[in-house]
Structure formats: C-alpha cells, structure tokens
Amino acid sequence: MTPLEFDARHLWHPYTNVLDPGPMHLITQAEGVWLTRDDGVRMIDAMSSWWCAVHGHGHPAITGAMQAQLAQMPHVMFGGLTHEAAIDLGRKLIELLPAGMDRIFYSDSGSVAIEVALKMAVQYQMAMGRTERTQFATIRGGYHGDTWKAMSVCDPVNGMHGLFSGALSIQHFLPRPQIALDQDWSEDGEINGLDSLEQLLSSDGHRIAALILEPVVQGAGGMYFYHPTWLQRAHEMCRAHDVLVVFDEIATGFGRTGELFAMHHAGVVPDILCLGKALTGGHITLAATVTSETVARGIGESAASVLMHGPTYMANPLACAAACASLDQLSVRDWRGEVSAIEKQMQQELSPARDLPGVADVRVLGAIGVIEMTDRVDPSIAHARAPDTGVWLRPFGRNIYCMPPYVISSDELSRVADAMLSLVRGDA
Ligand SMILES: *Cc1c(COP(=O)(O)O)cnc(C)c1O
C-alpha cells in the first residue's frame, strides 16, 4: 500500500466520509505560507491551517523556542508542579488582555477551553447560591467546538444538532444579530434583535448561567460579521440579570479581525474568555480559558472550592514555549500593518466577485476574506483544483473564504484572490 492508500484505508479525516474521503494531498513540508506535496507541488496555505498559522509555518523563532524547551523538558504534569514556560506565557497573556482578565486555565484544545468555560460559569453560579442556573444562552450561527457540551451551543441548523438531537441538552438560541458590521446601528429592539434577549432573560434568566458567543465574527457557523454595539447592549442586559458573558475568541484572537481581540471592536470585557488556534502560531495545540478575579474567587470560596477540571497535558511546556514565541512575534512585528494591508488588498481583489452569478455577498474584515455563495459549495472541487491554482482553500457551507498568514506577500495574496474567483466562476 502506498502512504495515500494506507491513509484512505485506515485514517479518519475531519468531517469526511471514511468510505469516500475525496482528493487528499500528502504534505511533506510546511514553510512560511507554503505547503509542499510529496511530488514537489506547492500550494499557498490560504487557510493558515484552520486559522492558526498567523506567522506562517515553521517560523524559526517559534520552532527554535520549541527545540530549546524540548531539550529541557517536553512535558511534566501540572498538578502540584509548575514550570517557567507556563509562567512566562501567563505573564505575556495578562499583559495583552484587558485589565481584570487575569486567571488563566490552560488546556489542550479550543473545544476543551469551551467546556472549561461552561463549567466555570455553572460553578460560579452555584457558588453564588444560584444552583438552578445550569443552562446556556447563545446566538444562532455560532460555532464553539465539537465536544459534547460545546456542540450543544453550536448553531442548531448548521451544527450537529440534527444528528444528535436526542442526546444534546437543550440550550437557548437567540436569533443571529441582524445588523451587520457595516450597517448602521439601530436602537429599535425589534430591528437589532435585542428584544428577544430581553424576553429570554425575563422568562428564563434564573435558569441561565451564561451567554456564550463569538464576538463580532462568527467563524465556522457561517463567517458572519455583526455589529459590535449588539455586544455592548447584550453585555449590559446580562449583567442586570446575573448572567455571565463568555467570549469565544478561539478564531478571532491575536489580530485576525484587525484588532488584537475582536472584543476590542466593541470595547466589552467578558467574564470568561476562551483562546486557542493562533495562540501557538499554529505550531502545536494549546488553549486557554481566562476569567476575572471575581469568578475565580467565587469558585475558590464556594463549598466545592476547586474547579473540577484537569487535562493530563495541561500547560504542556512545549506548547507554552511555542505560544510565548508566537506572542513575541506579535509584539516585534507590525501585525496591525500586515493585517490592514491584507484587508485593503482583499477588499479590492475580491470585489469583482460581487458581479458573478451565484454570489450572495462579499465581505472582508482584517485578514478574513469571504465570498458567500447562494448555494452550498463542494469542498472537494477546491481540493482537486488546489495543485493547479497553487492555493489551498477549504470552503465550507456556502462560503469560499481565506484566512491567510499575516506574513503573506501581496503577490501571494493576489494568487489567493484569483483562486477564490476562479472557484466562484467554476473554471475547470
Ligand atoms: C476552532 C474553534 C473552536 C474549537 O477549537 P478546537 O481546537 O478545534 O477544539 C471553538 N470555537 C471557535 C470559535 C473555533 O473557531
């Protein structure tokens, strides 16, 4: 069996039919924005490998930090033991995050960071004597991961609710904020959709531990950008009803939307924040759930007293070292300039798509470029064409989109835009 035959015969791939996995590329090297196949074919990674590799692949500062850590200690348990990589990363994160977000729980993936956030919210509510608050509210069009509880707050239509309906706990779904980022805000609660939040909080607020959502940019649930004022109002309303606010910045964190964190577009600080994906610059898996002194203290002083979570590979030193080096890159490079140059160029080069048949919308924010089609897009077409266009794209749902590494050159970005347009046109 060739390696690809073995892969097709034995390995599961994400969201893929095990019997018909479609076109598959054997990657032997990833460097900068480039992926190289076993036969030497090169493709630009316009996905930043699921939005993580913001500084490009195999960044020498990050791999160097990992090698140094590897020589010292790839891993030790975090129960009762600690290490400098975790401490350094904690210092760096606290410096980057808004004042007050300063209690950090490390975990190994975004979905787990969400599980931890939801657990924190319920434990905090219990600690406050609000033991009946075990449910969650969220907005439609969201995505928060694939583990069981995270799945229950993903969009009920685009997500996996259909498949697992009997097994998922019921949460409260509000309509997606209707006013888009580029539209004018309206205080009319029927137009901005906040009436439904007010109704929910009045009728069921006493059962709700937290409102969880992706601030401003909804990623895998549909690549939708909504008005930041919605967040400000929703945050005030939740406060008034003792409902915690959880921001999932796993996709949006570390500059992707043009601000360091998407919450900065709204100037809102949540009670609990989830980070992941680009935290290590796409070099190794790591996530974090960060909360305030108030929430941490509440849990610590409660009868339960401990947060009931502790992944085996919590605060893995290798991953923490990679994250430290990745955050250092953000501080030494002009990521803001890079992202805004990408934004401007994509606004120009994707806009011709507006006039093509089958296109519903074109939108760009920071280093995110989206062409939304009226019908579902078959990702296997993009996969099969990638070697010819030299651009790796993985459309989902009705969206052909890119989230390139911030270090992409303007020529390379033009190739990405061309490849997206050629998919829209259905070029053979
Ligand atoms: C990817 C993602 C997750 C899940 O992260 P994993 O590391 O895949 O478990 C959660 N929330 C958002 C917004 C994401 O984009």
Please tell me about this protein's structure:
Helix content is 38%, strand content 17%. With 428 residues, it is an alpha/beta fold. The protein folds into two domains: 28-55 and 340-425, Aspartate Aminotransferase, domain 1 (Alpha-Beta Complex), CATH 3.90.1150; 63-332, Aspartate Aminotransferase, domain 2 (3-Layer(aba) Sandwich), CATH 3.40.640.10. The longest helix is centred in the first third of the chain and has 18 residues, at 110-127. It is globular. It binds pyridoxal-5'-phosphate. Residues 109-111, 114, 143-145, 214, 219-220, 248, 250-251, 276-277 line the site of pyridoxal-5'-phosphate.
What is the gist of this entry?
This protein has 428 residues and is α/β, with parallel strands linked by helices. It contains 15 helices and 16 strands.
Helix and strand layout, with pairings?
Layout: H1 3-10, E1 27-31, E2 34-37, E3 42-45, H2 48-51, H3 60-72, H4 84-96, E4 101-107, H5 110-127, E5 135-139, H6 148-152, H7 161-164, E6 172-174, H8 189-192, H9 194-204, E7 208-213, E8 217-218, E9 224-225, H10 228-240, E10 244-248, E11 272-275, E12 287-292, H11 293-301, H12 317-332, H13 335-350, E13 359-365, E14 368-373, H14 379-389, E15 391-392, E16 399-402, H15 410-425
Parallel strand pairs: 3-15, 5-6, 5-7, 7-10, 10-11
Antiparallel strand pairs: 1-2, 2-3, 4-12, 8-9, 11-12, 13-14, 14-16
Helix pairs in contact: 3-12, 4-12, 5-11, 9-10, 13-15, 14-15
